[in-house]
Please model this.
Amino acid sequence: MAKVFHLKQKRKVQIARVMNNPSKIAVIGAGSWGTALAVLLGQKHNNVQLWAHRRAHSDEIAASRENNKYLPGVILPKGLLITDNLEAAVSEATVVVMVVPSHSYRHVFSQLIPYLPPDCRVVSAVKGIENSSLKTMTQVMEELLKLYCKTDGEYQADRHKGIELGVLSGPSFAKEVAHSVPTAVTVGFKNIRVAQEIQKVFVTDYFRVYASSDLIGLEISAALKNIIAIATGVCDGLGYGLNTRAALITRGLAEITRLGIALGAEHSTFSGLSGVGDLLLTCTGSLSRNRTVGLKLGEGKNIAQIKDEMQMVAEGIKTTRSAFELAERVGIDMPILEQVHSIIYENKDCAEAVRDLLKREPKVE
Model:
């Protein structure tokens, strides 16, 4: 009983810290987006640590005060610490920001769970769906936390039950955020009050943050917009015009919304920053990795060649497989997704895929 009482008292203190100024923030993943978020948070807060999974990369960033591999030209704030030690990064953190690729997310999160403090807030800034389970990143974290608590007994279950899981999503290229370009995003937790807590952690005079309680809507829209961006890039690579691009973005949003609603999302989320906002940015922006994948496909390269040429992960490639299987599971018609899947995983000719889309039976919009 004394142990449980102590945990509850500690929980109240930690929540109060988050509401005012978090004692420590850990950013897990030193790619371009993770580094950009660490820069943003490091400019606002005193104790921010950025975790890189390789010692050599961590040492290079720490020595140069710049992530030359993924975000060159951006000098890190003086107080931002760099580490390759997960325990050191996460211990005593009130906020943990997960920014590792979806295919390694489960492995990294399972490793850091033992070091998570009670009542910390874990924010996923990853836009993908896991291939093996077809789960979003917050669903993966929820599964792993439950498994860990069950395995490690009653004390760990009580210790971890105050941890809140959320997501950061919206139209935001890492390079622009790192250079303080005005940006607006959404942070979501099932408990809107927690979302509002984390909203205060991230918001700055150039980074506007809205709060939401629609976790599944934010994650589905964020993941699937990458697939529509690949489709848009394909059509741009084939030399089609702005009419084609507008049609793909509009009908792509309709597909994303159908799947999201079937999974329990709120319709309004898809007309917001994480929905149409991120979709527009990713389908039209020159910094979009997923649009770049589509451009190269449309120009005649295969997916193996494109992967070899790209230094950073384009989440839409793997998410295409996950989303295709998820749509089949819930019985949602997603013709653009189907054609992108055929191009990437069945080597279908890009021009043929567009023709097949246009030949579909006319419908009422």
Q: What stands out?
A: The chain is about 55% helix and 10% strand. The two ends are 60 Å apart (CA to CA).
